Amino acid sequence: MSKQSLRIKLYVNRKAGGKYNPTNNEVDYFIELETTGDPFYTFTEDRYEVELFKDHYIYANLLATLKSNAKIINVLGSIYATENGYQNCLLLNDKKMVVEALQGNLFLVKGTTIITPPTSDGCLRGIIRKQLIEICKTLQEYTLEEKSISSFDLQKADELFITNVMIGIQPISNYRKKVYKNEVARMLLQKLNVKVRLAS
User: Fold this and answer.
1) 193 φ, ψ to 5°?
2) Hey, how many other C-beta atoms are within 10 angstroms of the C-beta on 129?
3) DSSP code for 65
4) Is the pTM of this model over 0.90?
5) DSSP classification of residue 177
6) I need a surface site. Which of 66, 87, 88, 98 has the fewest CB within 10 A?
7) How many CB atoms lie within 10 A of CB 163?
8) Could you state, in order of their start, the residue ranges of all structural domains in the chain?
9) Given this structure, which CATH class describes domain 49-199?
10) Which residues make Cβ contacts (< 8 Å) with residue 88, sequence separation at least 6?
């Protein structure tokens, strides 16, 4: 039997009762399986343009780092991106720092430094983010930093890319007048696929 790649989502909800003031601490849950096609991540060089979504902000706190179904800012940002012809948008926190993309974590490459926002800025604790941080720490030619990213840093970057468990790594090609390279994203995707192969 051929191997298939699956996305497994575990939904956890508190049981009904009490509205905003729970009458018990018990939970309900269900598991959803979805086939995703190719067992390994593939690389794309298609145009992928992003813009800042500035209508609403993410608050830099612990709740923002958790995956939930209450991501209304991401929904509004996705509508904005579609209406304006962007492939994605980047979200800001209440301190005006760039936190993440609508559907994934953000990484920036400047010279030999790879930067991703810290979870203290409010970014999601993504699965692929964690894996890439581990990979980046093994690289001799690059250093990894978890630090805040400003909108001005986007213009100075050599590369930008988005990560999530569905796509692996999505290089960003354009932000306003800036055009980005994708060599580091390509290299990291190869290393990520090695980890996937070893784990399968």
Assistant:
1) -65, -30
2) 23
3) G
4) no
5) T
6) 66
7) 29
8) 5-37, 49-199
9) alpha beta
10) 48, 50, 81, 101, 102, 103, 162, 170, 172
